[in-house]
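Next comes a concrete protein, fold included:
___
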Amino acid sequence: MLHDIPHCYWLYTGNQRYTAPFFDETISQCKSLPENSFPYRSLSTLDILPSWGAAMESAPPTAFIFHVSRCGSTLIAQLLGLPEEHIVLAETPFLDQLLRLPYQQPNIDTTLIAKALPAALQLYGQKRRGDEKHLFIKTDSWHFCFYRQLRQLFPTVPFLLLYRSPDEVIQSQRRRRGMQSVQGVIEPELFGFDKDAIAACSLDDYMIKVLEYYFTTMLEITGYDPHSLLVSYHEPVLQIMQKIAAFTGITLQESELQVMQERSRYHAKYPEQVFQEPASTTPLPDSILPVMELYKQLETLRSRL
């Protein structure tokens, strides 16, 4: 933002592929390039994006990955990024800023955002090698709040809905809290929460409310959206990848599946570490029971589908 007028800062990326677990890590890597060492930064107004995006030869969006957090979404994004013809955007800050802009600037022209967001994907999905075919967009978990807006912009693009048992999500959040799990970091209006009411919640109770929103939304989506696919954390990794490939129309070679199987042994966020999830026996509050029921409904629905 510059004097309440939306602006974009530009960064030279060279031939850097977006393979880091999160997109902000890619940004940090690119900042060290000599082309980005000048004292002045390039910027433009937001309304220039549609014309610039239209001039790009880009890979079209193949799927959006929605998730409840701590449910294997980072690993799935990492595996999808292994083939060099795939581009994966993993929780891209600029896309989040666009979506949340009306909550920070209520007077912003929302039609500008509706044009800028697809254009941003054209720019991020630019065919820099020339052989890129598929673009996967891993959302932030709170982007369930923008499901209808994204579906309107991309009416037939597959939406993958990744989830995990709420009690396991809470236990993981206790070890390291995400942005969506602390009151006030993400605008409460996104979830329809009353600011004063949530201020008194414990961290666990607040995250349970967020998960209740996520699971309720997934149940609604799967009820009427034929382009959505439920994916459970507890499905075998290769089964998940084959299911995603079939649903999105991509082809995964046997050699790629073997590489994916090996990569899945390691931590999604710390690829050099073999994955081991510490056990937790700390009891959870009774407030989790309603969202556990929603989880069971979702599991029943997935088994039928």
Q: What stands out?
A: Residues 97 and 137 are 15 Å apart (CA to CA).
